[in-house]
Amino acid sequence: MIPQSFITDLLNRVDIVDVVGRYVQLKKGGANYMGLCPFHSEKSPSFTVSPTKQFYHCFGCGAHGTSIGFLIEYSGMGFVDAVKDLAQNVGMVVPEADDKIPPLQRAAQQAQSQSMTEALSQACDYYRAQLKTAPNAITYLKNRGLTGEVAARFGMGYAPSGWDNLRSVFPDYEMLALVESGLVIDKVDEDGGNKKRYDRFRERIMFPIRNTKGQVIGFGGRVLDNGEPKYLNSPETPLFQKGLELYGLFEARQPIRDAGYVLVTEGYMDVVALAQLGFPQAVATLGTACTSTHVQKLLRQTDNVIFSFDGDKAGRRAARRALEACLPQVSDNKTIQFLFLPEKHDPDSFVREFGADAFAQEINDAMPLSQFLLREVTGEHDLSTPEGRAATQYDAKPLLQAMTPSSLRLQIVRGLASLTESSPAEIESLFELSKPVSVAKKAPPRQGRPEPVGLELQIVRILVAHPALSLTLDEEALQAFDHFGQESSDALRYLVGTAQALGEYGNFAALSEQLKEGGGHYDRIIAEIASEPESDPEADRVWLGSAVRQIKKDALKQELNQLFSKGLTPDQVSARYREIMAQQQVLEREDAANMSPR
């Protein structure tokens, strides 16, 4: 876990205008910068970036967040990767609270990673240059209908014949990074004596695999003829894990947003060919089954994922594995579909034979996940017999157990119940599904505190906008919040504590990032503050002090009204009365001393 103090320091050092400006063309507009929103299609800019708040906000689609949030949403990075990316740009090293690695060892690991990244980048440049002088490779790509433009977009190259061509690229051909990055292979004699080093990729079209930052982390190489293996991938390395990466995702990020969906295919050539044919929103798994991490990455980019599989048995097996990977990630606001092409066709061949419009129609008619799941579990079972219906339920049980409780799961349960002559409640009970949703219950009592209003709401808004002002609140001020009721008081104490933990340099961006971890309760207020002009911290400080004093006065007045009904002795009443009056006078004097128009 990355310490919050580091996150705060990082957000104070990075400039969100620079971060967003790497991906969005921004123009100065008053105090803020404006541009076309990268998260939805628009013709007039409604996307603003505030250098003072260090926050972005779109008035069109409502997207908002910090530099960290922008990288997560735009690039599909995880939180840790986004933090590391930003930290690297400002020369910071990300600490880890539970990290036991000694500093020297950590520095060595970082140096190793940097060395591998540089080696892969140099190799990519070499392969790209070789493609320009390889007639056989150029002819192959032209025969596949690819232009030089699309080859350049994906950084495609060619590894020529020969055992050690990379020796001309790396003067120190024996450097460790070449083996660690998978570019070369060390072959050792059986007796452990002589070692021979040679290039891993030879006589292959080269497809560089990029991470979400655009860095080359590995390669896929395709033979020009019918040699084996047809595709050769880089091995797993500290930079490259096949179960985590998707080919073409870096290039497809904006097309995915423009199209409103991502198309997941089975190979490199599908991705490149589809981009050539008008479907640049395609990505591919890297010679491995689709994983839950793949699905998670895709759902960060879009709400609609469509898997495309060949119509043969291998394609259907791959589709089943993809279905299983999707189930833990399914939610009611996401759509996952499955497209099955006719046998002997992949997306490339289908488009070339039937045209782009026909393929677009196939995409439009793709099978919803719910339908595919029910088709899979019914299989060859005879639903007219008790045994067939029981076998169907047996096959469905692990799939439904993998899903989180949701409306979609309920719909699938109802469909399965209808097919197997059962009730939804019986299915959920039999499958021991967590949090059954089909059983009719009385509406649960409303939980959580009500939305803040009035004075409480204004205090919350000021503390979120200017977290450093929380440092002006002492325990006496926090006790005054009890006037709002227990739930509201607890929430305000949490907000103040979170803000105070950021210290005197805590800002709106840092607090917003922290509050996200506590759920979405503050999302609406954060979005409102992000969309408004920057408020004056000094005026807010004066008003906050006045508001706390007003709460204290209201609490004293309420106590005074109830003083004679508390069952106190006359002496106790008299003593407490004098205390209340003295406290009220102090508050009045403080009000007079701090009078300032808001």
From TrEMBL:
GO terms for cellular component: cytoplasm; DNA-directed RNA polymerase complex; primosome complex. GO terms for molecular function: DNA binding; DNA-directed RNA polymerase activity; zinc ion binding. It catalyses: ssDNA + n NTP = ssDNA/pppN(pN)n-1 hybrid + (n-1) diphosphate. Binds 1 zinc ion per monomer. It is an enzyme of class 2 (transferase). The keyword NADP does not apply. RNA polymerase that catalyzes the synthesis of short RNA molecules used as primers for DNA polymerase during DNA replication. Contains an N-terminal zinc-binding domain, a central core domain that contains the primase activity, and a C-terminal DnaB-binding domain. This is DNA primase. It comes from Massilia litorea.
